[in-house]
Amino acid sequence: MKLISEFNDYAVEPVIVEENEKGEKEYFIEGVFMQADIKNRNGRIYPKQVMKNEVERYKKDFIEKARAFGELGHPDGPTINLDKVSHMITKLEEDGSNFMGRAKILTTPNGQIVRNLINDGAKLGVSSRGLGSLEQRGGAQVVKDDFQLATAADIVADPSAPEAFVEGIMEGVEWYYDSGILKMKDAEQMRDEMRKAKSSKLEETKLNLWKKFVENL
User: Fold this and answer.
1) Quick check: 33 and 40 in contact, CB under 8 A?
2) How far apart are CA 154 and CA 38, in angstroms?
3) Average pLDDT, the chain
4) Are 87 and 153 in contact (CB under 8 A)?
5) Is residue 108 scored above 70 in pLDDT?
6) Fewer CB within 10 Å: N-end or C-end of the chain?
């Protein structure tokens, strides 16, 4: 299975509850988290039934048990890193081809960053992250029914070129389970090369890595 990340073109709306029972502000984001039956900017289509089935599992196993977390930024793997968590998804409901979500911004270090961004008027987006197989059909990659959500929403800005490139590399990695732990089969060397590249050689390194990535698609 491959890592599949989708940036949503719709900005999410911040909701600030002025005071909870402790007299503290609570922060939420809500809006379109995922879309089905539409070819997205990455050329992928999530069949409605595939997404609906996985959302129901995700709600039962994660949202209803208060463990549906998301991170700030673009994680490069399918696992949730608790030290980077910024929010907890509390709602995910079907609305036509859209799946509308709501997430509570936590008081973790990354959650505080999100709160500050909201206070300063920043526009935020969300990106879903999961594992699945893809099938080429009529000019689009169709997500197959083995799709598994890692999170319905990481909090992101519209990805810049370097972030999108790194995300592209990670999406080319095959993931597998080894004694219950997710591991990747390749691309570790590519990641190391990107991180170690000197600024003067960064563009050349990117180009070479991109060529390798495309050749292995």
Assistant:
1) no
2) 20
3) 80
4) yes
5) yes
6) C
Q: pLDDT of 161-181, one tens digit each?
A: 333 344 444 455 565 555 555
Rounded to whole angstroms, the Cα distance separating 171 from 192 reads 16
Residue 182 lies in a domain: no
Residue with tokens 């991180």: 195
Q: CA-CA distances (angstroms) from residue 58 to 114, 177, 181?
A: 24, 19, 19
What pTM was estimated for this model as a whole? 0.72
Select which of 5, 74, 86, 128 is catalytic.
74
Would 166 be classed as within a structural domain?
A: no
Range of the domain at 39: 2-158
Q: What is the pLDDT of residue 28?
A: 93
d(CA 6, CA 173): 16
Quote the CA–CA distance of 45 and 37 in Å, as a whole number.
Answer: 6
DSSP 8-state symbol, 12: B
Q: At what angle do helices 188-196 and 161-171 cross, to 10 degrees?
A: 160
Position 163 in a domain:
no
Q: Is 127 an annotated catalytic residue? A: yes
Q: How far is 66 from 73, CA to CA, in rounded Å?
A: 21
